[in-house]
Prior knowledge:
The chain has helices spanning 36-42, 55-68, 85-98, and strands at residues 47-52, 72-80, 102-104.
Amino acid sequence: MRPPSRPRPESGGILSSSCARSCTKKRASAFTGSDLDLVLRSSGVDTLVVAGVATSAMVAATAYDAADRDFRVSVASDVCADPVDAVHEFLIGTLFPARGFEIVTAG
Length: 107
């Protein structure tokens, strides 16, 4: 494995896809049952942007797990969804910010 890439200033701090690595997600949290924590730490990553299909389930589980592991967490609100719009809006507008998660947009 090559040394970790560092984000270029013009990339907004995001690593290029050429250094991306895949981890198979097996549970609600992307960390549970995967080597994601090891992969991120060995690459020097300390901040995550979380996005996904179920804001109240998979996104929340991964965001809380990441925070418990001392990662800085952002949630990309415009690339998350939930079956119940009001739940999504509450999580993005109230609960996640109250927990210290930065709310960002992908666009």
